[in-house]
Amino acid sequence: KVTGEKFEFQTEVSRLMKLIINSLYKTREIFLRELISNASDAIDKIRFLSLTDPNALEGASTLNITIWADKQNKILTIADSGIGMTKKQLIENLGTIAKSGTSEFLNAFEENKADMNLIGQFGVGFYSVFLVADKVIVTTKNNNEDKQYIWESTAVNDFTIAEDPRGNTLGRGTQIKLFLKDDALEFLEDSTLRGLILKYSEFINFPIWLWTTQSQVVEYKELDDDADKNKESTDDKKENDDLDQPEVEDADKPEEKKERKTKTIEVPGWELMNTQKPLWTRDPKNITDFEYEKFYMSFAKDSNLPLAWTHFKAEGEVEFKSIVYIPGKAPEGLYQKVQDFSRNVKLFVKRVFITDEFLDFVPKYLAFIRAIIDADDLPLNVSRETLQQHRTLQLIKKRVIKKALDLITDLSKDEEKFTTFLSEFGTSLKIGAIEDNKNRKKIAQVLRFPSSYEGSNSTTLDDYISRMKKGQDSMYFITGASVEEVQNSPFVEGLVARGYEVLYMVEPIDEMLVQHMPGHGGKMFKNVAKGEFKFGDDDLAELEQLKTKFTKLIDEMQSTLSDQVEKIQVSARLTTSPCAVVATDWGWTGHMEKIMAAQPF
Ligand code: ADP
Ligand code: MG
After folding, report:
1. Which of 111, 497, 538, 568 could make an SS bond with 575 (beta carbons 3.0 to 4.6 A apart)?
2. What is the ipTM of this complex?
3. pTM of the predicted model, to two decimals?
């Protein structure tokens, strides 16, 4: 028992802990997921350091996570040989500096927009330990010169930190002891722990060992020294063999059969909980959708199912394996705030986690994709910065972008899923059509717009083109705030009456889109609220007649309205409405005026 230096929790953290302690959250088990995830992150970090610093692993050379329960004292311990924490890091990470996620989580929680299960997504997963424990002791030793420290807290207001009087017992890493609440003792049971760890360790790339007591049926021969010797020798052999192989040899020996005696003994020992074969290294043929979904939810820390994914192996110019996912839901604030989505792409080199701190791995409009990339050709022993400049990485980016767009194209063939996709990420797609010159054509093929033909159902541009009237040389569109608004527009009525189809561009971004994307499939866009219109010859004759008929009126209006409008003319584009205010080809439409007026600059 050591009395340590006392620290106050940062106010926000303290609030968060009160909430956690008092929470009657049913699935408290998620604390284990959070601790395993932290342990895995910590081992990722030291492994990454060891690529450039051969001495980094000196403190502890085995990279693993161990978990054991002490029933007598009601303590559950989770330990890792990860990077550990210095005293300074302990103070900052576990209590005194509130991460931005702390208040975000508190707010979301209070507004019922988040439940405890999402705590990890907000970057405050550690505190979930207080769902099950009323006291927590963290012992940690960083890989550098700093000493081994003990952090201790009973939550809420303060914690203490003391230098460990035992010295460096860990070598390197972190050990977290949870003093379980009396109603959380189920987390000391082998069967409970085994089930939970299996569930949460499946996609952890380091061995997770659980101390368990397993019943084993053993054979024995009474008063037979030779038999014992035999057993020893088979045991030796077994260690070198595949452990999964059942022993069949003995069964073939008839003379032993009659003397066979068995008994059940309890064998305590370390039990390996995961196979650590990363999903992306496996053959897609043998992976079920369910596995892909579980993997996504685990690595993306997303509680929603993914919408679609593609698992591929790139070959040729650059070689890597990858799984690219489209989430089922757009993250909060995808378009509103400038958010750092850098963690959405995780880069591994030969199965070693390198980084997920990319600033612009994919263009902004694709920032919503989640991807795992495992490359073979990247140098391991360079810094993250050097790595990100590497030519191979540029090639990888190009391939991943192409695959993501292919995935979206494929998805567009699934009506239901694509509707979901468009409602979550439709704006991203349009930003892509605006910004990505190289891929504009591909993106334009899956864009959809409501139209006078389809109503609020949407049409692709290709389908629109296939319905264009003979002699129609451009794709007619109108911009506005809603389908209801534009379909009653006088600009549309004349065209529709003549059998032309008009695209309804009713999203704020559409106005920008048509400016940057002049056309598609060899056809240009034509704004029906702008400029002149040419129809067939019949119309022309009629138009000439009308022009003569209304010369006087036009002259009169021209002189009266000369300050307000550029010119006044007789047009064939209207049918029932008497007149319309039209923008010039290079001017702003009424809708654009509204958008510009609403801009803050
Ligand atoms: P997050 O993992 O999202 O950063 P947590 O609340 O789970 O948020 O953890 C807070 C921080 O505490 C981590 O970022 C890490 O720096 C540190 N930490 C937690 N557990 C460990 C551990 N086992 N080893 C080393 N550092 C850890
Ligand atoms: Mg965490």
Report:
1. 497
2. 0.99
3. 0.78
